[in-house]
Design brief:
Number of domains: 2
CATH superfamily of the largest domain: FAD/NAD(P)-binding domain
Mean pLDDT: 94
Number of helices: 10
Low-confidence stretches: none
Oligomer: single chain
Helix content: 25-40%
Order of helices and strands: EEHEEHEHEHEEHEEEEEHEEEEHHEEEHH
CATH class of the largest domain: Alpha Beta
Strand content: 25-35%
Largest sheet: 8 strands, mixed
CATH architecture of the largest domain: 3-Layer(bba) Sandwich
Distance between the termini: 46 Å
Strand order of the largest sheet: 6-7-5-15-16-17-14-18
Number of strands: 20
């Protein structure tokens, strides 16, 4: 069976659904979104969901602000809450090395008009009862920062897109992107049906290179393990309204979770995965054989300087999943010169929840030929030249981008 559309989007995670919503807002034609499993069921469902506003890289604050704007729009359009938790954030410095980054973040917030305040150890302890503030030098307090359930946000994009006419097809895997004479012509589905369209957007996350590489397009990212732990419930130690915290000196972040604490700790050498070895559903992928205990054993000591009780706390849950990282830790958004009609929104670098709304907007503006609201050049898919995403050395360079990341 052959069907037709104007735009096909592959992937029902945050990047695919946000692109669908933004394209639908621009009345870009008949849009079909294909998701192999269910909406928000893969990497999106395992995100830590921090919506940190202040960023120092060009364009990122605008992308994040667009996500906040989308949340407000979608809640109005659907007449339902996406349960945004505006608890604020603390970015904490405990060394000269992190102080410069802290000051840069504060200045970036000031320039963009984000409410921010420099605070000392006493204020940090008042907002985070669990923290040992002995080594804390100063922190940036941003009261308008928030977190959100990524699955709720993703389904919000999808529902709002459907309301605007997008056809959302779940349990519909794409086996190949069709092309002829250096331009895309559509996709072949897992059941061998075809959908023909002049534009195909590859937003398949960890699986995106499996679809693009047969076209001669190597997208410059690879799946890298992101993970976090959730402590046992202790409402007095972890009040529900406490801010989320970013601790660059510990390569860690924390976030409240219904009386418990989510703790993300980044190991010195992060683990990458060959996309060819990824299963079709991450529920079947063994991201770590020991539920992260070896990582805690090797990497928790820096965090324990801020939270000495951490090792004695019970861990109630462990969450791991693939986050696609790029060597320069910048997103991949746009088209390629070698294949007309092919576009991608990928390489979220752990920031897809926060920047997804803006990534969808930027991509939709590129696809429809509008003037882009931010400079698209830093996100150009071809900025590294030709790459082989299955080369172990390249995959390590992507893992290193996460290993060297300082923020949450």
């Amino acid at each position: 069976m052959t069907q037709t559309a104007d735009i096909i989007i592959i992937g029902g995670g945050l990047l695919g659904t946000s692109a669908a919503y933004q394209l639908a807002k621009r009345k870009a034609g008949k849009i079909v979104l294909c998701e192999q499993n269910d909406i928000a069921s893969q990497a999106t469902s395992r995100a830590a969901c921090l919506l940190t506003r202040a960023r120092t890289k060009p364009g990122l604050m605008e992308l994040v602000q667009e996500t906040y704007d989308c949340i407000e729009e979608i809640e109005t359009e659907l007449n339902e809450s996406l349960d945004l938790q505006q608890v604020g954030s603390l970015t904490i410095s405990a060394s000269e090395a992190s102080k410069k980054g802290l000051e840069d973040t504060y200045m970036a917030a000031q320039r963009f008009g984000i409410e921010a305040e420099m605070v000392g150890p006493k204020a940090v302890k008042e907002m985070l009862p669990w923290i040992d503030n002995t080594s804390v030098r100063e922190a940036v307090w941003m009261p308008t920062d928030a977190f959100i359930d990524a699955a709720l946000l993703c389904n919000g994009y999808a529902k709002a897109a459907k309301k605007r006419g997008v056809v959302v097809r779940t349990r519909t895997g794409v086996s190949a992107i069709l092309h002829s004479n250096q331009r895309v012509t559509g996709v072949r589905l897992g059941n061998n049906d075809e959908i023909h369209a002049p534009v195909v957007i590859d937003a398949a996350g960890a699986w995106s290179n499996l679809l693009s590489y047969p076209l001669g397009i190597g997208l410059p990212h690879t799946p890298v393990r992101s993970h976090f732990w959730i402590t046992e419930v202790n409402p007095s130690l972890f009040p529900a309204n406490q801010p989320f915290a970013v601790l660059p000196d510990a390569r860690a972040f924390t976030r409240p979770d219904v009386g418990a604490l989510i703790v993300g700790i980044r190991e010195p050498e992060c683990v990458s995965y060959d996309p060819k070895e990824m299963k079709t559903n991450i529920e079947h992928v063994d991201f770590t054989p020991d539920n992260g205990w070896s990582t805690l054993s090797q990497s928790a000591s820096l965090f324990e300087a801020f939270f000495p009780q951490f090792r004695d706390l019970g861990i109630a849950h462990y969450m791991a999943g693939p986050s696609c990282y790029v060597p320069d830790a910048n997103f991949i958004i746009g088209g390629v010169s070698s294949m007309e009609g092919f576009y991608t929104s990928s390489g979220c670098c752990g920031g897809g929840v926060a920047a997804g709304g803006g990534m969808g907007r930027l991509l939709s503006e590129i696809v429809t030929g509008e003037e882009t609201f931010v400079n698209a050049a830093p996100f150009d898919p071809e900025r590294f030249g030709a790459i082989n995403p299955f080369d172990p050395a390249f995959q390590k360079s992507c893992a290193d981008a996460r290993s060297n990341k300082k923020g949450g």
